[in-house]
Design brief:
By secondary structure, this protein is of the alpha+beta class. Helices cover 39% and strands 14% of the residues. About 6% of the residues have low confidence.
């Protein structure tokens, strides 16, 4: 439950930071162009060239940037060229500091994060009270039926960021 709240609050804070500190968030996502391609990738690794305002190399997951950052399959992400050069943060520092924060946040829960596959994602700037009420109704319904829902068991997990590559199998009984 706390991890779901953390994701929800983090998503809301991301929206506020994008509103009040857009250059920081543009650097954190690794985009230079005024508007990214659509759909936008999510960059895991980049070699930024601050002087030429481009990435010399970028490794990312197609579509994930649009889905994760804009909550839309065709969303575009604004880049650092929207900010005057003299006000731009150094991209590599912000980009990798953000990635380190995510990794440390995931590791912080360690073995105690048995439910880290359950993520509560409510799109920022788009949700209404009825959306929240629906999510609460579904959570309460699952809670009421928890004894009848066998769930899933993790059969394989990566040592880091396991929720991206875990393999699951249905459980026959509850633990």
């Amino acid at each position: 439950m706390l991890i779901g709240c953390q994701v929800f609050v983090g998503d809301m804070l991301y929206g506020k930071m994008l509103e009040h500190q857009p250059a920081k968030m543009q650097a954190a996502e690794g985009f230079w162009e005024k508007q990214s391609q659509s759909p936008a990738p999510y960059y895991w690794f980049i070699v930024p060239d601050q002087q030429n305002q481009r990435n010399r190399f970028a490794l990312g997951t197609p579509y994930l940037g649009s889905i994760w950052l804009t909550h839309s399959l065709k969303g575009r992400v604004e880049g650092l060229k929207n900010t005057p050069r003299d006000r731009q943060p150094t991209m590599w520092i912000v980009f990798y500091s953000f990635r380190l924060m995510v990794v440390l946040g995931t590791l912080m829960f360690g073995e105690h994060a048995r439910m880290d596959l359950v993520r509560l994602a409510i799109p920022r700037r788009v949700y209404t009270q009825s959306h929240i009420e629906y999510v609460v109704e579904v959570i309460l319904d699952v809670w009421r039926r928890r004894d009848a829902i066998p769930g899933y068991e993790v059969t394989h997990q990566a040592p880091f960021l396991r929720h991206f590559s875990a393999r699951l199998k249905p459980r026959s009984t509850r633990p």
